[in-house]
Design a protein that fits this description.
alpha/beta, 4-stranded mixed sheet, 10 strands
Amino acid sequence: MSITTYSELKTSIANWLNRDDLTSVIPDFIALTEADMDRKIRHWRMEERSTANIDSRYTALPSGFLEAVRFHLDVDERPVELVTPLFLQKQRNSNADATGRPQYYAILAGQIEIWPTPDTTYTGELYYYARTAALSDSNTSNWILQYFPDTYLYGSLVHSAPYLVDDARAQTWSALYQSAVGGINGNNDKAKFGGSGLRMQINSYS
C-alpha cells in the first residue's frame, strides 16, 4: 500500500507487525522516530531563515531551532563566528565593557549570546536547521513522509522492537532504517554539491 499520510503510515506499521492491537502505541513509535530523525538528518528542506533586531547581549532562538548554519548582520555579509560558551566568556572577562559590531556568538540556555555587546541596533539573519513538523491527525504529512516514507516505516518498526520484545527482527529493521537516513543525507549532499543545479529554497521568518 502507499504511505502518503499519517493514517496510512499507522496502518502500514500495524500490517508489517501483523498486529491489530497496537493502535494506542503506534503513535509513540512514530514520535520516537521523529525525535531520532531530528538528531540524525540534516537536509536542505530543514533549513530556515530568521531575522531579528540585535541590540543587546542576548537574543532568542527561533522556534524549532536545531542547529545553526550561518549568522550574519545586515551591515555586511561577514559571518558572525559561532564559538563555544567558554570562549565567549573568556572574551567577556578580558573585555568586560566592550561594545561594537558583534563578532562572535554562542548558543546558551536556549538563547544566542553575542560578543561584543552591540553598540547600536543591527538586523541579524540566522540560517538554521529547524525541527521537522511532527505528524498528527491534523498534520497528516511532511516532507520526509512525502519523499522518503520508508524512513518513517523502518524507524517506527525499530522503535516497536523494545515494546514488543522482538529482538529477532530489530537488527534487520535497524539496518534498513539507517540506510534510509543515510539516503536522505546523501540526497542533500547531491543537491548541494553534486553539480545538479538545484538551488536551496529557504522559508523566511521574522
